[in-house]
Design goal:
about 75% helix; five-stranded mixed β-sheet; elongated; alpha/beta; about 300 residues
Length: about 300
């Protein structure tokens, strides 16, 4: 009985010991799995953090031009600079190199710089200054009331006429520039507002000597100026060709005179040969006659 009890106790202890070993191994495996899960979780967190950072960078890259656009529509200094960039882009795309300058001082007695000076084919400067009226445009778009819109258009007309007069006084100079300057508005939508103001363009041109141009009309205007440069180049080329032809003609005339002289000398030589042949013939006949007389 005691032996059976001892065996039972031993088996029970072995079972308990085995169970403890099983629990230990299970806990260890669970810890390892937990550790791997934690590592995987950390990796996922790191990857997610990188993606969030990338999204933030993309948002910043998108926000920057949006902020620029807001400043553009706000009508501050940045808006004017955007207008100048637009003008530079149009001019560089159309005009040949060397036919324009940006931020040009036309009057040496002042420090006033025109946004762009385009040179015509005859060497005169065409002053072009960029202006933006984004504040008036924004206000016009924001109000549905016709009375308010008319009030805004009236204020826009006053601002444009004032700018046109300022441009004319600063940049139009006799014998240096053309008789007119250009007020460039870098937005077709804003130019649509200008068209709503009756006779404003004509008034600016006739009274201020200033043309109002938008991106499309500016491109056409510059194309016309460029054609003048092409005609000038063609005239210069034609002058060079005419000079070459004149020189060739001069040499040809000299050659022709030489040919005439050679011909005259040849004719004289032929005449001399004919005269000599005549003498030879006469002498031959005389010799024949003398020979016959001697034989007789």
């Amino acid at each position: 009985m005691n032996n059976l009890l001892g065996i039972f106790i031993i088996l029970l202890l072995v079972g308990i010991f085995g169970f403890l070993i099983y629990l230990f191994l299970k806990i260890k495996k669970s810890n390892e799995y937990s550790s791997q899960s934690d590592l995987s979780f950390v990796n996922k967190i790191d990857s997610l953090s990188e993606e969030i950072s990338e999204i933030e960078n993309k948002l910043i890259s998108v926000t920057t031009p949006i902020n620029e656009l807001n400043r553009f529509l706000g009508g501050n200094v940045s808006a004017g600079r955007l207008g100048e960039w637009n003008l530079e882009s149009v001019v560089k795309d159309i005009m040949p190199d060397g036919s324009y300058e940006f931020q040009k001082i036309i009057n040496p007695e002042t420090t006033e710089q025109v946004d762009c000076a385009v040179y015509s084919a005859d060497g005169l400067i065409i002053p072009i200054d960029s202006k933006l009226y984004s504040g008036q445009f924004k206000n016009y778009q924001a109000t549905p009331k016709k009375t308010e819109q008319e009030k805004i258009l009236k204020g826009l007309k006053t601002a444009i006429l004032k700018d046109a007069e300022d441009i004319a006084q600063k940049y139009i100079r006799q014998n240096t520039t053309s008789n007119y300057a250009v007020l460039y508005i870098a937005s077709e939508k804003m130019n649509d507002l200008v068209d709503l103001i009756e006779d404003l363009r004509q008034e600016c041109l006739s009274e201020k000597n200033v043309l109002i141009q938008g991106p499309n009309t500016m491109a056409a205007f510059l194309d016309t100026v460029k054609i003048g440069h092409h005609y000038l180049n063609l005239n210069e080329t034609a002058s060079k060709v005419a000079e070459v032809v004149r020189k060739i003609n001069k040499q040809f005339k000299a050659f022709d005179e030489s040919t005439v002289n050679v011909k005259k000398r040849l004719e004289a030589s032929v005449k001399e040969v004919d005269e000599l042949q005549t003498r030879i013939n006469v002498l031959g006949r005389e010799l024949d006659r003398g020979s016959q007389e001697l034989e007789s």
